[in-house]
Amino acid sequence: MSRELWLLRHGKSDRDVVMDDFDRPLKKRGKQAVQRVGAWMLREHLMPDIILSSPATRAINTARLVCKAIGADKMAVQQDKRLYFQGLEKLKRVLSECPIDAGRVLLVGHNPDLEMLLLDLVGGPNVPDTDKLLPTAAFARIAMPKDWRSLDAGCSKLLSITYAQQLPE
Fold first, then answer.
1. pLDDT > 90: percent of the chain
2. What does pTM read for this prediction?
3. Phi and psi (nearest 5°) for 65?
4. Are the C-beta atoms of 140 and 158 separated by less than 8 Å?
5. Rounded distance, CA 2 to CA 140, Å?
6. If you count DSSP H runs as helices and E runs as strands, how many of each does the chain have, helices first?
7. In terms of CB atoms within 10 Å, which end of the chain has fewer, N or C?
8. How many C-beta atoms lie closer than 10 Å to residue 130's C-beta?
9. Dihedral (CA of 163, 121, 77, 14) sign
10. What letter would DSSP give residue 27?
11. Burial class (CB in 10 A: 0-12, 13-18, 19+), 125
12. What is the largest CA-CA distance in the chain?
């Protein structure tokens, strides 16, 4: 069975609202970008087996908007606090707990953790040379090893990175 990890950084959040970082909502522009990514996923027949999300408002709302766009409204979004700025090792631990039969895992989260995970899994020389690898609403596809528990550095291959701003409205 081939496995893929899909990393989706949350949509643009509203920094103008005075509130705790955890509770910041998506901006209108952020919602639109996430909906474009979801529509693209639907066109590409990208349907996850599992959706893991940071419980932060902007991340969980991103996950729910994608579910709606791909017609997976009933799919459970598993929230895990270890996906909210807990670092590379916690992200890898969450992934190692995925069921062995999960072929496609969508992880919705934040930078810098998602970029660190991507760089660790595929190796720095194997990613595009850009200032911001995963801006808001970016979607990365990574070919993974046969076992979610075997996530050594450089064990994976970057298949693609899709940027919301490059997708049609």
1. 79
2. 0.94
3. -65, -40
4. yes
5. 16
6. 4, 6
7. N
8. 10
9. negative
10. P
11. exposed
12. 46
- DSSP result, 60-126: HHHHHHHHHHTT-TTS-EEE-GGGSS--HHHHHHHHHTS-TT--EEEEEE-TTHHHHHHHHHH-GGG
Average pLDDT over residues 65-73: 93
The per-residue pLDDT for range 88-126, each reduced to its tens digit, is 999 999 999 999 899 999 999 999 999 999 999 998 776
3-state secondary structure of 5: strand
Q: Is the preceding omega at residue 112 within 30 degrees of 0, hence cis?
A: yes
Q: Between helices 113-122 and 88-96, what is the axis angle to 10°?
A: 70
DSSP 59: H
CA 49 to CA 26: how far, in whole Å? 25
Q: Which residues, including other chains, have CB under 8 Å from residue 87's CB and lie 6 or more apart?
A: 113, 116
Query: Could you state, in order of their start, the residue ranges of all structural domains in the chain?
Result: 3-166
State which fold the 3-166 domain adopts. Answer: Rossmann fold (3.40.50)
Residue 21, pLDDT > 90, answer: no
Q: Tell me how far the alpha carbon of residue 23 is from its chain's centroid.
A: 19
Phi, psi for 165 (deg, rounded to 5): -65, -15
Beta bridge partners of 121: none
